[in-house]
Write a structure and sequence with these properties.
Length: about 180
């Protein structure tokens, strides 16, 4: 089963995603937390530590993979696994900007392939993404390309997903 959970910053989407993957993990399969945040400063580290603390006693095996998520495939093939990917917006930013090369179309195609591979290799796959599309502001070209790629991947993910949820003010709303 594949599930997309998205919402605004601080909406409660991460907590709901953890709850949802734990509900699906009834057989006690390997439970992976695929963390995509790339740490650049103390604020980022504080956020990572807060997330680690929040899931410390939830039996997740954390894999820190800010880019190239298909590299975790060998570990997923060992036995049935459930994966929580947190989060797509970080992953796209890392893929687009960390090497100084901005090619949104290339990143979009790569991520689509990697998502399908991971989904095919696990039992349950929950993906967290962000809703950053409602401010109506036109940004610089690189930022607009990032926003468009995030929108495109969210549309792709919602098409693949068995369930799609939006979390607003801590309230999960099922859309599909």
């Amino acid at each position: 089963m594949m599930i997309l959970i998205y919402g605004g910053s601080g909406s409660g989407k991460s907590a709901f995603a953890e709850q949802r993957i734990k509900e699906l993990n009834v057989s006690g399969n390997n439970l992976y937390y695929l963390a995509t945040m790339q740490v650049f400063d103390d604020e980022d580290m504080e956020r990572v530590n807060r997330h680690r603390k929040n899931r410390a006693d939830k039996n997740f095996k954390t894999i820190e993979q800010p880019k190239d998520i298909a590299l975790i495939m060998p570990e997923m093939k060992e036995e049935p696994s459930d994966i929580l990917l947190e989060c797509m917006s970080n992953l796209i930013a890392n893929e687009m900007f960390s090497d100084g090369i901005i090619n949104g179309k290339k990143v979009l195609d790569k991520l689509k392939k990697e998502i399908v591979l991971l989904n095919d290799s696990c039992r349950n796959f929950v993906i967290v993404s962000n809703n950053i599309f409602e401010d109506g502001i036109v940004y610089e070209a690189e930022t607009m390309e990032y926003i468009n790629i995030l929108g495109d991947i969210n549309i792709f993910l919602s098409g693949l997903s068995d369930e799609v949820w939006e979390v607003v003010a801590g309230i999960p709303i099922r859309l599909k």
